[in-house]
Structures are given as structure tokens and as C-alpha cells.
What does this fold into?
Amino acid sequence: MDQLQKQRAQESLRSYRAEQSKFKKPEDVVDPSAYRSNPLYQKGQVYGDFNYRSHYQNRDQYYRAQGYQPPAYAFGGSPSFGMFDALFLYWMLDHASNRNVAATAYNHADDPGYRKWRQEVESLAKDNPEVKAKLDELDKQVKGLQAEGKPKDAAYLPTGVSPDVALAAQALAAKKPEKTVVRFAGGQAGGWYDRYGVLFRKAAQGLDVTLTRTDGSLQNLKLLARGEADLAIVQSDVLAMIDQKLPGKDFASEQTVLYPEYVQLIANRASGITAIKDLDPKKHVVYIGPKESGTALTWLGLCEQDPKLKEVPIKHATYPEALIEVRKNPKALMMFVGGLNSPFLRKAEEEAQRSGKLRLIAVRDRNFKNKTDKHGNPIYKLVEIPKDVYPALQKGWFFSGNVHTLAVEAVLVLRTDWAKKYAGAMDALSLAVQETKPEIRRLVNTVETKTGFDVPKPDRTFSIAESR
It folds into this structure.
């Protein structure tokens, strides 16, 4: 964590120095005490350690989205004036004919920083007819507002302009950091989703993380879609179904992969079944977890690839309940989708050691590999669970063996609206993700390098409009 923070601090400092080098005059030093009670200054929000790099990226993105390019003369002075960012004030000047924008000058005419900028522009206008014409237009708009006798609003900003764009970076950096709430939808108590939520909450400095236990992936997506959760873990195959199951496909465009999850199918040894292809619809029943769980939806996805599976009877139950049924009934099987070494599979391994009645069977069919998401990425990958992961569950007649199966990915999904609303908190969130990814992978898949699954992948942090 300390190394990541140090790296972010160095990047932040480099960005600050690069920005300052664009201007001919030094920055106008801000005295925080002079603006602490200012309504506009109070609207600016800072989360965790202020990062100049992220701030400038977000500010510049706002201008690029408008197609606005600051004029060269905007860099002839200081990068800031009191609490105001210089580029914001010159943007205002360049849009002086817009009454909504010009009202900024009317409402903040008495601000010391604004007056300093005004003096610089008046001096510039003496030798620059273009600047003089823009300043005249601004004064014309201000006089119109004065004639109407409109009351001044010290917190005023043009519609659609964030305080983070208008306020100077150093003014924001001087503010006391605030904590923003992140509502994390995890999974069932004790599962890897739930445990990752605990890890994340401990690592998320500057964020107030609240954890909610759920039935799994689809419920998590529904909570995100309804705006009742901000961050959640979802299986990649469930995420691929988003267009059919939920409206508003762009509500969760911020994604990063955490770790692989394995399709683990457990049968009674007396069944004689060694692979999913041996299922007989007239004899067998498969327990596929709670309704709307990731496991249940993975089963539906497999049925799409192999229509024969649709004929197999299924039942919903908790995983412990299903395990009891499989132990008692040779005709029953159960499926569980999750990381290796999950608490539940460890219990299944202990039961297999005690009773000798349970075994892990193969879930492998080349047809499954052909399923792709809307981006053309494969949803399932063919993998092997090494023989030493679950020795009792993988025991053959004489020796334990690798089990061929499929894997999906556990994807951490951030609600798009949250990312846009709390852009200043994204660094704190990304930093927590960077710290916890290696730890959750270590805990979940201690033998993942033997599986053939393409992990660990290079760490990726959240960014606006990132998708798998």
C-alpha cells in the first residue's frame, strides 16, 4: 500500500509541475482561511489524498468534451487566481455571449481572485483587439444583470460546470478530505465475494464502505441497475447476459477482473458418472444453487450451448443443503461456481474424506468454449483443477487425477453514475483495488499457475468507460 501511495504521489507531483510549466507566471498562492467560508469553495469535494494528475485529467476532459481549446494568451499569466482556475476564467471569457456563463462574472465580481484576473485581462486587452471584444461582451452581459437587480449568488456556477473545473487545483488540495459512501454488494456470508468485500473495506482509505450480503451475481446486477449498490462482484457469464436480463446496459461500464471462478460439479460416487456428458434426464437431478445465483445462471448458459442439458431436471437449494442431498442420493448432483479453495468446497472435501461418497466430475465440452460476450470475448475457458487441490474429491480408483472443467471470471463492477459523480474518489477506490487484487487471488487460487487459466492478469484500475 505504501509503495502504491508513493507512486501515486510521485505521479501527482509530476503532473503539478508539468501544468505549472505551461504558464509564464507563478501560481497565485491561495490562503485556505480566506476561502474556507466561501459557498463556492465549500462545494468543491476532495476524497482521500488529492491527486493533481487525476484532477487535471478530469478538468481537461471536460473542455475536450466541449471541443474547447484554451487560447495561447491564457497561458501568458498565472495558472490560478485566488480560488479560481485560470482556464475556467478564460473559458468564461470565450463564452461571454452566453448569459448563463457570463453570470459568473456578475456573481463573483467582488472576489479577490476574480479581480486579479480581471486586471490581467484588462492589461491584455490594451494590445489585443480580440480580447477587448470579448471583455466588452462580458461587461455588456454583466450590466444587463445589474440592471435587472438580480441578487448575487456566491456559490454560482454556470449550469453543467463542476466546482472541480472552476476551482484551482491548489485550492482543492488545501481542503480537508471527505469520505464518500461506497455501497458494496457482495455475496453469501463467508463466500469469496463476501470476504473480498471485507478486504476492500479495510484497504479503502478515504471511503466509507458499507457491505451488503446477497444471493449472488444477478441480484448484485439488479442492485446496481436500481442504484441501490455502487460496487459489486459479478460472474463474467452473468455479465454477458446483461442485455437480455436488465435495461440500461451502460449502468455498469466500469469493470476489472479479480480472479477466475471454476465450474465445480459434485456427484455421488455410486452414480457412475465421471463427466457432465453422462447425465441422464430420466435418472438424474442437478442442484444449481439458489435462484438468481451465479451458479444457477451459469447452468442456464451451459444449457444454451448444449440443448441436451435442458432436459435434465434441476432444483434450487443452498449449497450445504444440496451437498447433503448428493451424499444421500446417488442420482443427485450439485454444481458450484466459485474460486478454488472456497470455504464451501473445503467442507465438501472434508465430507468426501469422511464418507468416501463424493467426487468431482468433468465439465468439459469444446462447444462451451464457443460462447462469447457482446465484445467477442470468450465467456468460458477450458481449464484443469490439479489433482492436489481436492485429493478426496478427485480420487480415482487408485490415484487422484486432474479434473477438466470450465472457468469464468469474477468481475468487480462499479456503477457508472458513481464514477462520474465522485470522480475525485476514484483514486482512493482504484488504490484499494490494486492492493486487494493480489491478496484475493492468493487466497482464492493458491495453485492457479497450474490451471492453464490466463491469470494473474496485469493489474488494471477503474477508468471512465472501461469495459471488459
Q: What stands out?
A: Residues 129-148 form the longest helix (20 residues). The chain has two domains: 2-173, 258-411+445-450.
